[in-house]
Amino acid sequence: MRILIITGLSGSGKSTAVRALEDEGFFCQDNLPVALFPTFVDLVDNAKERIRDVALVMDIRGRDFNKGFEKVFQEITEAGHLVDILFFDATDEVLIRRFSETRRRHPAIDSGSVPEGIRSERQQLAGLRSFATQIIDTSELNVHQLKGLVISLVKGGEGGREMTVHLQSFGYRFGLPLESDLVMDVRFLPNPYFIPELKEFSGLDPKVRAYVLKHGETGEFLTKFKELLEFLLPGYKREGKSYLTISIGCTGGRHRSVVIAEEIRDFFKRKQLNLKVSHRDMEKG
Fold this sequence. Notes:
alpha/beta; 4-stranded parallel sheet
């Protein structure tokens, strides 16, 4: 069987991930004691109805969750099953906001503040985090983006599937996208913001696009950037990477980064992959 261990910080999106896996046909079991994992796997493996994909959720709600998990994972692997550990995480600020919105008590402590609970949980999960096959930071992801990412990871692991590339522009003024795999800073390019007749338009406007692209350094940069991508993509595919996020940033995320992202869009259209393009900060002024 293929077994996914879903773990990570409370409030980081584990429940959303499990629902996405259920929609993909995974048999999911939440809050099962770690000591019972091998028994559960044996029962499922010998069930009359053949089950190929299983997801097990382990976190601090389970008693003794942090004791002996290395041995348990080894036993399951030695039994011939493929085990991947997906660790879900987010920044403290995002986790605090999510708990504030739901008004839930943090499960890591019986009393005390949410920040104290997050600190305690991070300490308790540090060992398990080091065993993770993949760490997924959900700080900048909404529910739909997280579901799409989980499904992409699952399908990509089966082999023969197209890689999904998320190409996005952003403004450094509004923070670095935490989900980025590659970040390209284009603040060195001539800035239309300082051209009065272009300032109010975005990088989707033909006049802004023409201004950015007419400069020699822009053309030279695009050539070298595409050469870098040509080199990197085959390597990512060989390693089984199914989801790649490329973020291109300028100061405000309205002009230069948008133009460059749109130019790189045309490059990716010629590749065998799924492409999503977004401009995170283009409308923020």
